[in-house]
Task: structure prediction
Amino acid sequence: MSSNSAFGSFISNLERVGLRLKRTRLAETRSGRVIVDLILWPTDLVKILRSYHASFGVYPNLLRPRGFNDFLQQSKLFRRKRRYTQCADKVAVRDYVASVIGPQYLNQLYWVGTDLREAPRARLPQSFVIKSNQGSGTILIVKDATVVDWNAADLETRRWLRIDHSVHFAEWQYRWIKPRLLIERLLTTSDGSVPLDYKFFCFHGQVELVQVDFDRFTGHSRALFDRHFSRLPVRYQFPPYGGALGKPACFEQLVQLAERLAGDEPFVRVDFYDVEGPVFGEMTYHPGAGLEHFDPPEWDLRLGALLRGRRRWPGSKHQAVGGG
Result:
């Protein structure tokens, strides 16, 4: 057996041991979770190196990161706080949001549980959304409850609850989320369409970048803005949105709320909807798992400079993203 295959086998076996222990009573204690995390740390490192190399053709600089994506990879390994698990949990984060900015910014919650068959169907409105608290893209949009195939929905949500999102790209904060389902109000605008999702990139507690996505399930495009909602000449993973977009009436309030939720974290993305006012969406510490591309690529360094506390991109006369 070659050294590479032997190492790959060792890592695979180590992951199996760690994930098996995670499902035992050992993981019910804080010290037990530390043991599991230590066992899985080498597998996290290998996944980060492999996924980053597959995406960018080079390995990340984990010790002295210069770029934004390098920092996100370093953060996965070395910046692990229990609050990250709370904020990544779509149910538990509600307590954090309520305590920091108030419950009035939370979407209406109809039900939380682990078995969709126990949801109070008779008391649900005509439209709603079903989500899992620990996944990405695990959502069912229900516009008419009278035509829902509940058996199919039950099978799908059971599959969601078996997903361990932490194993894909070594995003530790998902490892200790207890999988649950939730049913929320379906957010719509006055014309019945799905509202835009404003994603605020907060660096050391200050919004520097705003991402808005369009047609996510058809022809996905994206637009990036600075903290004053001026369009930025950069592409981030997806084609740039070709249309115009007006500044939301409550934009300044959205920025302030995002910054309050971000606190003093080096980086976190805070999402809001504008539905006749701010409605909290979610918080994300590693957008795109730190594997999405900027075009031109120097924007990765510009954002990395912000993470290092520098207000200007090194070696350039360009202003920082926020225009400060």
